[in-house]
Amino acid sequence: MEEPRIEKLKMSPKKVFINNIDSYASKYIAMLLCACVAEAPVDSDGEIKTEEEEKRETSNRGGEAAFHVVGTVSDKSDDIRPYVLEEYLQLNREELLSKLMDCDVIIYNISQHADQLEEALWAVSALHNEMGHFSGPKMFILVSTVMTWASSKPLSPDATFTDEEFRKRRAHPNFIQHIDLERRVVKMGKTNRTLFSTYVVASGLQYGMGEQIFHFFFKTSWLGQEHEIPVFGDGNNIVPAIHVTDLASVIQNVIEHQPKKYYLLAVDSSNNTMEEIVKAVASVLGPGKIQKRPFEEAFLTQDLSVMEIDSLLVNLCMEAVHVKELFSMNWLCESGLVENMELIVEEYQQSRGLLPICLCVLGPPAVGKSTVSKQICRYYKLHHITLKETISETIAQLEDTVKNADPDAYSDDFAAEAREQLNSLRESMEQHGGLLEDQLLVKVVKDKLMSNPCRNQGFVLDGFPKTYEQAKELFYAEDHESEDGTSMSSYSKKIMPEFVLCLEASDAFLKDRVMNLPERQVQEHNYNQEHFLRRLARYRENNAEDDTVVNYFDELDITPLCLEITSSNEPDCLLLMLKIFDTVGKPRNYGPSSQEVEEVERRKAEEKMRREAQEKAEEERREAEEAKYRAAHWEEWTRGLEEVRQKEEELLEAHSVPMRNYLMEHVMPTLTQGLIQCCTVQPQDPVDFLAEFLIKKNPFSY
């Protein structure tokens, strides 16, 4: 009865749950499982199938997916994850348990985020309690970390830890909860392994596909801002590590083979020291030099968490015995990070979109090549390569190498080579009036373009090459037969410009521009009349030939963007740059760092405060002026009003005197007598009495 059930399970894809599917390791585990189309390569007798048998079975199934991946995400995102069938965000425990019960395999990754420990413990406990309600066998895989071994003491200095010694492991003080969870997971898997099997995969420090724990060293090297890459501590600690894709392969094999061993180490065979790892990163990606610093300085580095610092300081020599014995894995980086550094760096750049942008800007003298090149470099954070600066920099470096050579044999040979090259450059410049012959010039420029900073971020090659032969020697100096039989240079893909800009302008425009340049710029660019006209004529002559630099790029299917310069006005220059930016596309770098973002925000805040302070000061000044104006005119207004009032009173007085005199002479004497008489008599009708009195006593009655 068991065989039909197993056969049925093989025919249908397994549903796999992975927590935090948007995190580094969980993401690549999900991607590998989603891409897996082959069933477990084990036949009915339990023997491993051959590669041919596996391919034949895969072909017969028509490429059906072996796993359907679902999982939780930590944050809402617009990112499309085609490798995930369903995503869950902020589920409560009841909803999450329902999703887990629908899955055949449950993977909890706690190697990166300690905040998943509690949920992982709850999940395995809840599933263990629900075993009676399982519709079929389930598997629980805990992806833990070798930090649960960090405090283990080897029997001898040269001893190697293996999976078989897992019961003797001792965790780092900050990873006690991890080892407790490992033990709980193992214990719950012993109740009924047929129905509910549990596994612990102790992962080494993960690398590859964009990096996570080693990202600080890759980023510092790639940016090229440090002359020496730091190694925290003495660097002699052995770091157990594994490529994240190999970790995913281990988990895939656990799911497919369901081994009896329930505790597995997932580490590669390298046993590299921290110093070896950082030195390899610095050599391939950065300045090639390292500097040992006290491990306490690591805690001052914002890009490193405490958990990552603890992991980088681990010292464990380990061997994944069970993985090698139980599985026939196709390792990607079994030999480790250092041995595969070229591949890891390529993955890092591809995964993070850190691809160099290489441009070549051509054109006649004074057309504006340097101005355009500088603006491109500023926008895309590229390296501006000019002949003058490159030659000066090369000579300075050679002089420094010769001067500061170490006494050991290797450095002595290196210094002798540098001295020979320096003498060659000086002799050539003396013989050619301060200029280098083409062969040495091309070598100097090529060495600059092959430097790690130019290969990392990219470059803008300003005004070089000038001839077809220079271009051919610069980009195709070392020819070899490629697979399709064509001649191809080993340098071409690394330093060949992706974009070529050809600026053009009429001779009349160029002459007029030079005539209107400030004297300082004329001297700086050596644009005196005779020299400028000679350079312009030489450029026109070179571009009148059949084999030009533009034709060279055309032959390589690199179509130059030709731009006609007709104006020096700012709006026209802005339109020109917008056209260039639209052609080249978006920047391919880290963008501003958190410190740079904080600095920009700080500057914006300061600018806002300064602007508000200016506005407030301006308002206060305006109000003070208005108050002063009012105060200055208030007395004048008061004095004016007083004068008006006096004038009105005088006018009124002038008009009232004749009237008052008239009344006093003709009316008031008789009226006064009448009023006195009226008061004396007090008649019943005083008005009538007064009227009669005035009529009788009217002195003008005749």
UniProtKB/TrEMBL annotation:
Annotated CDD domains: ADK, DD_AK7
Single GO MF annotation: nucleobase-containing compound kinase activity
Coiled-coil region list: 595-630
Keywords: Coiled coil, Kinase, Nucleotide-binding, Transferase
Coiled coil found in the keyword field: yes
GO biological process per UniProt: nucleobase-containing compound metabolic process
Protein name, entry field: Uncharacterized protein
